[in-house]
Each structure stands twice: as C-alpha cells, then as structure tokens.
Design brief:
With about 325 residues, this protein is mainly α. It has 15 helices and no strands.
Length: about 325
C-alpha cells in the first residue's frame, strides 16, 4: 500500500472478514480502489467503516447530481480543509471523469471555465465557514442530497485523513506529475463513469434511521444518520466536562484555521482527551505523537483512538451541517 498511517496500525485489508471484507469488495467495485487509505485507517474501529463508506458512496458515487460537479465539490471542501491527500485524490478522480482540462486548472489554482463548476467550487470552499454557504445552492434542488452529502462526507474524511494518514498519496509524491495524475485517472475512468445503484451500501449498516430532511428520502439520509450514530460513540471516551468543552468550542467556531502560536487547544497534560477531540475537529494534521501519548492508557487501544478522532471530526461536521441547512434570514423574516 503506497500510503502509511499515523498514530495507529490498522488491520491489513487482506485479513478482513465478514462485513469489513464485504465493504472492501464494494469499494473495489464502486470506487475502483481496492484498499482506500481513508477507510482502511478506520478498520481499528469497524463500526465506523460502513457508515463512512456509505455516506461517500451514496452521495458522491450514486447520489443525484453530475459526478464531475460533485468531484469539484469534494475538491473544494478538501482544499478549504487543507487536506493535501484528498486534494490530490480528487484531482485524479476529475481526470477519471474525462475532464482533464478542469482537473489541471484546479491543481494549478485556477478557477473552472464552466460557470456552474466555478459556483460549486466557491460554495464548497465556503462550507467550512458556518453560515457562509446556505441556500440558494449552486445546483438544482433535486441534487441537494448528492451535493450536501458529498460536502459533509469530505468534511469528515478530510479530518480522518489529516489526523491519521500521511499526506503522500503515491510513492515519491508521483501524483505531482501531470502524466501520472492523468494516467491514474484514466485507470479509474471505467469505474467512475459506470452508473452505481443507489442504496447498495445500506444493507451493510445497522438500523441507521431515516436521516435528515435535506436528504429527501434518498439513501444519503440513512448513511448520514448511521455515521452520526457511530461517530458520536466516541464521546464516551471523555468525561462530561470535556464533552461540554468540545461542544462549546464547536458552537463558537467561525470556520477559521486555529493559530499555531499561541496554542488555543487544552493542555495535553491536563485535558488530553479534549485536546485530541478538538484537534481532530479543527486542526487534525496537528495531532502529534506527544498528544496521543499524553492520552494513551493501557485500556486505550487503536480502536479507542480512532473513535475519539471520529468523534471530534464529526463534531465539526455537525457544526457545518447545521449551518448549511439553517433557514436564511429571508426565510425566517
């Protein structure tokens, strides 16, 4: 596998059995990548893999809306969150859609020539800032589940990747070469352009519930609900005071990237769990070995660490989702 992992040693995909093995089979078939690192890294906490995959699959891959447009959205969210791994991945996936010129414009920091793609990219970047990307959305209303699901899926995945996966997508950063990006995209083109049946991931979920209203009764809703349930399980690793601290910090978050100096996060010696959760939410790439070591106890396995990181990551997703779907001033006046 070309990527390596940070702070955790996930189960090798070849050792997977049961539902996790089924998930890898579905990923290989519908995503075109047999062992995608953003999901492999969750294998230490199997309850998280299925809903994280389901939300991405049912929105980006099988949900309503043009795949190229949703790839632009995934690129924009990843760019706003500073997730280099995901930016590189979605550059290659844009090549896979056949829009090579668009992929190269984005990777060079230029705006799309197509007006709709330019509006989607701007909207996706602004989703990180609570309240800055409300309706009217830059896509038809019937495509809302696909686009919102994609944006929220990558607000979660970006944080998991930035916290627990190295930035290098291919060996020696080969994706920095245009020829490699294009070739890698072309190798995925058949899978990316093949229609996917909505809802195929839902049998792999445990009683997920209907999901939020914006999902419009599509499979995106149960996938989102399942991820919310699985990710919030990590709250049990914090005491009531630390949970309250995380909620307050996310409630007051304005979408900015926290400064490095002074360090605004709780002291790792005093509140290591709250520090890890908030770093996962707001600055996941800054989680250090020292942060993890300060929190680790004999009972804190990789399973626990992945759940705690997922809890913090989804706390940010929840803040973004509530702001994205809140009524506008015009609607409430």
């Amino acid at each position: 596998m070309p990527t390596t992992f940070r702070h955790t040693d996930p189960l090798p995909p070849k050792a997977a059995t049961g539902r996790v093995a089924e998930l890898y089979e579905q990923m290989a078939r519908d995503f075109g990548i047999p062992e995608p690192a953003p999901f492999v890294v969750l294998s230490s906490a199997p309850a998280l893999i299925a809903p994280a995959w389901a939300l991405m699959r049912e929105s980006l891959i099988a949900g309503p809306g043009d795949r190229t447009g949703k790839e632009v959205a995934a690129f924009g969210v990843s760019q706003a969150n500073g997730c280099r791994f995901c930016v590189d991945a979605h550059t290659m996936l844009l090549h896979a859609t056949g829009d090579h010129a668009l992929a190269e414009r984005l990777v060079r920091g230029r705006e799309p020539e197509d007006e709709r793609h330019a509006r989607v990219l701007d909207w996706a970047r602004r989703t990180r800032i609570p309240g800055a990307a409300r309706e009217p959305y830059p896509f038809p209303r019937e495509e809302t589940p696909g686009y919102l699901g994609t944006a929220l899926a990558f607000h979660f995945i970006n944080r998991i990747v930035s916290a627990l996966v190295t930035e290098r997508l291919l060996p020696a950063d080969a994706q920095r070469l245009r020829a490699v990006r294009s070739l890698a995209g072309r190798s995925l083109s058949r899978t990316v352009r093949r229609p996917a049946v909505p809802g195929a991931s839902l049998p792999l979920l445990d009683d997920p519930g209907p999901g939020p209203a914006w999902a419009g009764g599509t499979p995106v809703g149960p996938a989102y609900a399942a991820l919310r349930t699985a990710a919030t399980m990590g709250a049990g690793l914090l005491d009531a005071g630390d949970q309250a601290l995380v909620r307050t910090a996310l409630r007051d978050w304005d979408g900015s990237h926290p400064p490095v100096d002074p360090d605004p996060f709780p002291d790792r010696r005093e509140r290591p769990g709250a520090r890890l959760a908030l770093l996962a939410a707001l600055a996941p790439s800054r989680i250090s070995e020292a942060d993890v070591a300060a929190w680790r106890r004999p009972e804190h396995t990789d399973h626990c660490l992945v759940h705690l990181v997922a809890y913090g990551a989804f706390a940010a997703v929840d803040r973004v989702e509530s702001a994205l779907t809140a009524p506008s001033v015009e609607e409430t006046s």
